[in-house]
């Protein structure tokens, strides 16, 4: 991988802030966009802006082709059967809300839903709402002391009442990669539906939805070089067929009378109203970009950064690191400096043009489990370098001096 050349594709990285080159370490929140993606979005607006699935004019035809092509590229990228299994939403959160709302119709009073304490709020709150609506019980798989999914606790809490299991493939704080391929058979043998939050895994590792054998599988384009406002819900065809739409309106309809309506074919049944056409086209371009570099190469590069980053951070005195000691884990490192609030750490780093994230990272139950109010987090992507990690470590030294740590 030629990182120098890759970085040239990202205009935002070639700017200076406070006379410093930008170090962007907040990729778990959102990633930067290459010029190719920016151009694809701009091309749509400049050259063939039109609505999709509506007009017979040539502009609408081209927009429709490109919009559907983005579904095809997504299907191929995660090894789905085809575009009927790929629903575009606005983000992973909407995908998980769709899952909880529509699959949730299968839940009755007394049923159980099983998630884990390491979930992002987007994979907690929709299930909480569903459990309240249906008078069902929401159970939580615990984590081990080294930040992994507690598989013994999982086996204990999975029972015949468990109708849905919804787990993250990778934690946005601990970096833990959960062995979902291993446990999906147990979930299926139990007769439960399996929903996966893949927001932090699809951008970083090769995905094969058939191997994970998930019924529904959610992720966001903006965390993988694509535009904001476009997300994906993959669903097995037979499951999506069984589910009712989440949102209703234009384009998701086959026939409407004054009394009732029937639904369009998959995936359009789940895409009500004018979609984010530019976002979808930009996402298609982002997938092309990742394919050109090679997702395996990206994964290997991030692994090297993670290893280097962990080694450097472990050498720092008075630092707490969170997450498993060893692989498998993704390119995320969360930490706290003793007696320094993570927001203060983020602020000093920001003065050095190093963008990180601090706070509870939309995972308050996990914060409670870790007994902290928040953590500082760095997260890598294909354009980051070891030199940037060295700059970051120097800035941490400076932060420690400022706060007398
Ligand atoms: C693990 C995880 N799930 C879900 C989400 C929600 O993604 P989005 O904000 O794109 O809906 C995030 C975002 O950070 C995440 O890290």
TrEMBL record:
Identify which cofactors the protein needs according to its UniProt entry: pyridoxal 5'-phosphate
Catalysed reaction equations from the record: (sulfur carrier)-H + L-cysteine = (sulfur carrier)-SH + L-alanine
Single GO molecular function: cysteine desulfurase activity
Lineage runs: Archaea, Candidatus Iainarchaeota, Candidatus Iainarchaeia, Candidatus Iainarchaeales, Candidatus Iainarchaeaceae
UniProt xrefs under SUPFAM superfamilies: PLP-dependent transferases
Q: Which GO terms describe its biological process?
A: cysteine metabolic process
Q: Which domain of life is it from?
A: Archaea
Coiled-coil region list: none
Q: State the name under which the record lists this protein.
A: cysteine desulfurase
EC number of this enzyme: 2.8.1.7
**Keyword Transferase applies:** yes
> What's the family?
Belongs to the class-V pyridoxal-phosphate-dependent aminotransferase family. Csd subfamily.
Q: Which Gene3D superfamilies does the record cross-reference, listed alphabetically?
A: Aspartate Aminotransferase, domain 1, Type I PLP-dependent aspartate aminotransferase-like (Major domain)
Where does the Aminotransferase class V domain start and stop, copy by copy? Answer: 23-392
PANTHER family attached here?
A: CYSTEINE DESULFURASE (PTHR43586), CYSTEINE DESULFURASE 1, CHLOROPLASTIC (PTHR43586:SF8)
List keywords of the entry alphabetically. Answer: Pyridoxal phosphate, Transferase
Classification via CDD domains: SufS_like (cd06453)
């Amino acid at each position: 991988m030629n990182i120098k050349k890759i970085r040239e594709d990202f205009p935002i990285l070639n700017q200076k802030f406070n006379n410093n080159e930008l170090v962007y370490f907040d990729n778990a929140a959102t990633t930067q966009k290459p010029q190719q993606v920016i151009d694809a979005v701009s091309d749509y607006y400049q050259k063939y802006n039109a609505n999709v699935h509506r007009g017979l004019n040539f502009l609408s035809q081209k927009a429709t082709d490109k919009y559907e092509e983005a579904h095809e590229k997504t299907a191929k990228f995660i090894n789905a059967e085809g575009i009927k299994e790929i629903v575009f939403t606005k983000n992973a959160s909407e995908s998980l809300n769709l899952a909880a709302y529509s699959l949730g119709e299968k839940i009755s009073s007394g049923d159980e839903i099983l998630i884990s304490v390491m979930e992002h709020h987007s994979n907690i709150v929709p299930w909480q709402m569903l459990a309240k609506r249906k008078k069902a019980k929401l159970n939580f798989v615990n984590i081990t002391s080294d930040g992994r999914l507690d598989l013994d606790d999982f086996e204990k809490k999975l029972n015949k009442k468990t109708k849905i299991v919804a787990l993250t493939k990778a934690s946005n704080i601990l970096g833990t990669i959960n062995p979902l391929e291993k446990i999906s058979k147990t979930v299926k043998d139990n007769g439960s539906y399996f929903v996966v939050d893949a927001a932090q895994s699809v951008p970083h590792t090769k995905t094969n939805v058939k191997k994970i054998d998930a019924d529904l599988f959610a992720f966001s384009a903006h965390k993988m070089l694509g535009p904001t406002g476009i997300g994906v819900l993959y669903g097995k065809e037979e499951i999506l067929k069984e589910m009712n739409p989440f949102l209703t309106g234009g384009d998701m309809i086959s026939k409407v009378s004054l009394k009732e309506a029937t639904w369009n074919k998959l995936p359009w049944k789940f895409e009500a109203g004018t979609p984010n056409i530019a976002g979808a086209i930009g996402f298609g371009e982002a997938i092309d970009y990742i394919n050109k570099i090679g997702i395996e190469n990206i994964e290997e590069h991030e692994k090297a950064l993670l290893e280097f980053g962990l080694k450097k951070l472990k050498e720092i005195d008075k630092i707490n690191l969170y997450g498993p000691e060893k692989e498998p884990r993704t390119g995320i490192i969360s930490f706290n400096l003793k007696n320094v609030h993570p927001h203060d750490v983020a602020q000093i780093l920001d003065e050095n043009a190093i963008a990180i994230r601090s706070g509870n990272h939309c995972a308050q139950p996990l914060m409670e489990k870790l007994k902290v109010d928040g953590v500082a987090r760095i997260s890598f992507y294909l354009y980051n370098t070891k030199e940037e990690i060295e700059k970051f470590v120097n800035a941490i030294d400076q932060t420690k001096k400022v706060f007398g740590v």
